Q: What sequence folds into this?
């Protein structure tokens, strides 16, 4: 099992670790990692591993078996031996952009309070699909964009807490996504909260990485709203 350092400190850009397994496909498993594995619409992190004079470019990270996180080299290379100590470094600019966009998508689900049917995250843009019967017109789109940026500029704190699976079952309204359910099996679920006390605007299950305050997101624009079915509407955002 890999200790997910990104869960306790998403701002950590480097860390040492030991190689505990190698996969048949050429993946590398460490005892702990700062690399987020692809999940929930958020891409896996990229970066490098350094072992002495050798540098291995990591293209992405994916979930493996038994809680392992597998780092996938960008090309076929000589893999480090088991037990070797490596220095891992993130492509920080890419990760930080994903953190900003991911948090922005949570805010988008606040200004558009409809069930979410899908989503995707990149370092400079993202989108959510909503079960929404009507297409917003140009005026409504401008209002939505204004509300979204108003939440950003409020500089709301982003925090987390953990609840049991039973507690989540008792509060089904916390789950906004229709297509992806929170991962189960460990007995507890991570909640991401935006705002605190009377200023709370959002609380939902999420395992991704986020910024600490909404002002870090920066100004956003609603780039496109598309009809993707009888009631499915795709709303894309990007940095202004």
A:
């Amino acid at each position: 099992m890999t200790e997910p350092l990104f869960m306790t400190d998403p701002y950590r850009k480097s860390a040492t670790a030991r190689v505990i397994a190698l996969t048949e496909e050429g993946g590398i498993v460490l005892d702990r990692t700062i690399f987020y594995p692809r999940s929930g619409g958020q891409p896996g992190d990229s970066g490098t591993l350094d072992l002495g004079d050798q540098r291995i470019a990591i293209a992405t990270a994916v979930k493996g078996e038994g809680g392992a996180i597998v780092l996938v080299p960008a090309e076929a290379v000589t893999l480090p031996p088991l037990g070797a100590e490596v220095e891992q470094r993130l492509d920080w600019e890419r990760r930080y952009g994903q953190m900003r966009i991911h948090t922005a998508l949570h805010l988008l689900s606040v200004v558009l309070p409809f069930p979410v049917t899908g989503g995707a995250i990149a370092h400079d843009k993202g989108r959510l699909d909503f079960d929404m019967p009507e297409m917003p017109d140009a005026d409504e789109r401008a209002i939505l964009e204004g509300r979204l940026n108003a939440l950003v500029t409020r500089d709301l704190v982003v925090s987390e807490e953990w609840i049991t699976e039973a507690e989540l079952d008792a509060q089904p309204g916390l789950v906004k996504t229709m297509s992806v359910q929170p991962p189960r099996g460990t007995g507890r679920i991570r909640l991401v909260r935006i705002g605190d006390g009377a200023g709370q605007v959002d609380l939902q299950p999420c395992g991704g990485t986020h910024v600490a305050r909404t002002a870090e997101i920066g100004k956003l624009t609603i780039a496109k709203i598309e009809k993707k079915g009888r009631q499915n509407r795709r709303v894309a955002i990007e940095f202004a």
